[in-house]
Amino acid sequence: MFEEEMAYYNQHRQEFLSKYEWKYLLIKGSELLGIFNDAQQAYAEGSRRFGKVPFLVKQVLKEEQVTGPSMT
Questions:
Q1: Residue 71 has what pLDDT?
Q2: Domain-by-domain residue ranges, the chain?
């Protein structure tokens, strides 16, 4: 899931870093559909446009944050 969206993000990552660092991007397929100040705004717009169809909300960061299952 999100292979196309992540490939698009990675292909344009340097451009996104120079223009949109710390912002949240709304990506569907290989298209940037919006730039937002917070994840909630991006998610709300994606939900409004696509309903329950998957879309990617990605924060633009120099160092990617890796998250995984909690060990607690």
A1: 47
A2: 3-59
